[in-house]
Amino acid sequence: MTNPMGLNWNKKIAAGGIGFLIACMGAFFGYEQLAENGLDDLPSKPCNGAVDRTTVANVLPDAKKAEERGKHTDPGKEFKFYCSVKTDNGSILSAEAEARDAAEKTWSTFYDQSRSGNKVEVPAGDAHVLSWPKFSAVYILCTPPGRKASEAVQSYALTVDARIIGKSRVQGNELRRALTSFALQVSEYAHEAGKCQESATYPTTSPAIDENSY
After folding, report:
1. Which residue intervals of the chain are DSSP H helices?
2. Neighbours of 1 (CB within 10 A)
3. Which of 11, 158, 178, 179 is least enclosed by beta carbons within 10 angstroms?
4. Contact (CB, 8 A) for 211 and 175
5. Where does the pLDDT of residue 48 fall: very low under 50, low under 70, confident under 90, or very high at 90 and above?
6. CA 151, chain centre distance (Å)
7. How many Å apart are CA 197 and CA 167, to the nearest integer?
């Protein structure tokens, strides 16, 4: 059976990796709010209400200025959502959510083949979460509106890639937890905005990550 998700991601990486993703995000929308007094002056829920400002501040270092943006496409098979917060000192916290046709194992295997570093699987309700030192990925079932789950080649799902580029406020296990919380908040928002047919439970607190597991 073909693996359209894996092929698309491999092409994306070959086309320029992180730079390609950021360029796509820039073309999709511009910055929506400039916080002249840094992170504390951002909205309480940046990215159109997707994430908590406290979660963002737990990842990004102090800054004089910060910019945030967030926008999603119309719900459906090609649904996408982007969220980004950038500081004037060069740090960027960003995430992309996308509707896909892929089984959880296919999704997980892709990262095993494309990412290095200490991977940790994080318990998170109905979501499957993988964590690396500066990157988190989320997978959750999501049948688009107007579709039947049985129509999928593998499984209809919503995936999220979240990362910190540049300096971060915390390091190690604290960074993993903060970045995972950010990724899960983006996933929960996108799951609702994308009108996924499945119900979903998400953690109400920051997921625990066992330092002994990596």
Report:
1. 4-14, 17-28, 46-49, 53-59, 104-114, 172-193
2. 7
3. 11
4. no
5. very high
6. 26
7. 38
